[in-house]
Amino acid sequence: MSADRPAIRLRGLTKSFGAGNAVDGVDLDVVEGEFFSMLGPSGSGKTTVLRLIAGFEQPTSGTVSLQGKDVTDRAPFDRDVNTVFQDYALFPHMTVLDNVAYGLRVRGVGRRERHERARAALDTVRLGGFGDRKPGQLSGGQRQRVALARATVVQPKVLLLDEPLGALDLKLREQMQVELKELQRELGITFIFVTHDQEEALTLSDRIAVFNEGRIEQLGTPAEIYDHPVSPFVAAFVGTSNVFSDELSLRVLGRGGIHSVRPEKMTVERLESPLSGDRSATGVLAEVIYLGSSTRLIVDLDAGMRVVVQEQNDARRVGDEERGARVRVAWSDRDTVVVVADRRTESLDPAP
Amino acid sequence: MRLSRPARIVLAVLTGIILAVIYLPLIVVLINSFSTSTNLTWPPPGLTFEWWVKAFHNEGALNAIGTSVQIAIVATLVSLVLGTLISLALQRFAFFGRDAVSLLVILPIALPGIITGIALNNAFRTIMGIQLSIATVIIAHATFCIVTVFNNVIARLRRVGMNFEEASADLGAGLWTTFRLVTFPQLRSALFAGGTSRFRAELRRDHRDDVHGGVEREDPADLDPRQPVPAESGPDRQRHRGCPRAGLNRADLRGTAPRGGRESHPLRPTRFSARRAR
């Protein structure tokens, strides 16, 4: 795990398809053994970056290095990375065992050995005994695991996963998240995980790159990304945020700049009860949504903004407020994240 | 694709009707070929193998069939290989002039057969100075066949997409290995469909005969040994029978009226000249 020889190094990576850049000057180092997520909305360039790393696309400019070797001009089959595709791309005319053994077959591994290793790989994804079936006879979750076995049986240095859980239902997705994490720990290889699901990225990753319009908007650990978003985009995209624009910040917080407060850091209280935070704003309770373990309250502030508050359910909370009631939203100033500093104070404070 | 039960029944009935419309007349002809009657009497008054025996002893007919099969096989094979290569090139790669190539491949079925026929005749004889032969017939037929193969294969390639090829490359397979192990197996049924439909069309000579500019259209009645042979196509034409399509010369082409030219058609000699042996 040396900093000068990362598993993946991208420098000035740019890819344009006709008009505009799908990927616009991405610099990135991914450490060996890391579970790294690329998070962003569709069209943000995260999948294109993955395809550039795999070699399915040629960059317009910039370089891709794997283990310190420049592979920008190498074909996909000449790169020591393997991909788990979004739709799995299992060969429909081959059995599950032949699918998993494919990478070994094209490397010239003998029939007996490759079948043995493919069976072992199927065992690790708990699909032993499914080898003789065709991919069409498997469920989505099983296909997903076959795709994982197929990509890992050739022991790549880096595994690329392109929204691998996107096609699964919620229950299965949560189960597969745990399995992915375990598999990554077991194999000890670098995982590059592309997703548009911020919760998935936060749960699984060692580090996350948040993509927006072909650029990395923020790079950091899940806690850094969640607690200290560096732009309104990240604040809004990763989790739910109440983002105060410059004008609203002046009105509510008494200072300029853009600020963000997480819903779970806020509480809703009656006007007559004592103030619990050092920041507050009054408004009208617009909606109360019961979520089981918590309740989501939507408040239209008098300052002209709608905020979302999420509170854990306890005896005090349940059935406490009614829609249309006048309430106070309170929170602490240290939970107020400065996303963009006040330009007015900056301009008053000339650079040395 | 799952169909509802009523939809399946309707589909089955329609398929049955279409097959009946196509094959019942052919079956009537087949049954009649064993009939002792000479004028399609129904039901057949008696059973005889006479016509079949005659047909199997007719050297011209056998030669014609042999030549047709030979041309069909070679032209089909050539077009399978070339059609697949063209489809892969046009579907998987972007290059200058791709649309033009695509148009050129499809053009032979868009143009009337006679135009392509005359054009090829001119190209072979006048421009290249090649004598017409089985080889030129095969080339001409292959230009037609490629389109069918091309259409089948490119539709399949479009449907399958690049995913499997990318997955294969990702797992370490080179271009050829990917084609052999992944692309080709996906194409097999498309190739089979394209190949067999072409082979069938070849044998039936579905299209106008290209190089030779003929407008022949053989229906099964043409091969009925019981039909009297018109006087115009006497035995003097028999010299062509060794290679019925390739044996033409320019004079034949000119002498062939664009339509209704059957009487003077050079293929006439391949007909059974046997008259009723009564």
TrEMBL record, chain A:
Keyword Iron among UniProt keywords: no
Record key words, sorted: ATP-binding, Nucleotide-binding, Transport
Superkingdom of the source species: Bacteria
Gene3D superfamilies the UniProt entry points to: P-loop containing nucleotide triphosphate hydrolases
A single GO molecular function term of this UniProt record: ATP binding
Annotated Pfam families: ABC_tran, TOBE_2
Ranges for domain ABC transporter: 8-238
SUPFAM superfamilies: MOP-like, P-loop containing nucleoside triphosphate hydrolases
Name of the featured protein: ABC transporter ATP-binding protein
The organism of origin for this protein: Cryobacterium glucosi
